[in-house]
Amino acid sequence: MKQLMIAVIAALSFNLAAALEVGGVKFDDKIRVGSSELVVNGAGIRKKAVFKVYAMALYLPAKSSDAAAVINAKGAKRISITLMRDLSAKQFVEALQEGVANNHSEAQMAALKDRLQQFSDTMLTAGEPKTGSSVVIDWLPESGTRLTVNGQVKGKDIAGEDFYQALLAIWLGNKPAQADLKQELLGKAS
Question: Which domains does the chain possess?
Fold first, then answer.
C-alpha cells in the first residue's frame, strides 16, 4: 500500500510539472498537431502598457532557442494564445497586421498581402475575442495555416509556409511585438 501511495504521489507530481503555467494560464508540455507530436518551446505574457493582453505558448517538433531556426524549421508548429482581457476583433487584427509589417519589407508584404487579408477577414468574422478566449494558429505542412478560435476551425487553411513564418515573425522577428516575450517563447526566460 505504501508503494502504491508513493507511485500515485510521484505520478501526480509529474503531471503537475508537465504543464507550463503563465499568468494563471496552463499550457500542455506536449500536444498533437495533425500527425505530429509537438513540445512547448516557451511561453509568456504579451503586455501593452501595464495591461496583460494575452498569454501564449509556442509549440515545435523540437525545442530551439534560435529565433531564425524556429521560424525556418520544417514540420508542424502551433501558436496558442489565451486572451487575458477583452479585445475587439479589429484591435487583434490590427496588432497582427502591424507585427507582420514591422518585420517585412514592402516587397515581402506585397507577396503576403492577399493571404494576410484573408486571415484578417477570418479573424474579424470569428467574433470579438473576450477574456479567456483561445486563439490557436497551426502550421500544418500538408494544408497550410489553420486558425482555430475557442475550439472551432475558422475559415479555410491558408497555403504557403512563408505566411506562417510571417506570423511567427510578429513575436520572433527582428522587431518583435515584445522583446522579453520573444525570449520567453525561445525558452530563454529567467
Answer: 2-185 (3.50.70.10)
Cβ neighbours of residue 4 closer than 8 Å, sequence gap 6 or more: none
Q: Which of 95, 143, 93, 98 lies closest to 120 in space, CA to CA?
A: 93
Give this prediction's pTM: 0.87
> Mind listing the pLDDT tens digit for each residue in 156-189?
999 999 999 999 999 999 999 999 999 999 998 7
Model confidence over 36-65: pLDDT tens digits?
Answer: 999 999 999 999 888 999 999 999 999 999
**Grid coordinates in use for 57?**
505558448
Q: Which residues of 135-159 are buried (b: 16+ CB within 10 A; e: fewer)?
A: bbbbbbeeebbbbbbeeeebbeebe
Query: What is the C-alpha to C-alpha distance for residues 171 and 81, in angstroms, rounded to an integer?
Result: 12
CB 83 within 8 A of CB 131: yes
- What letter would DSSP give residue 129? -
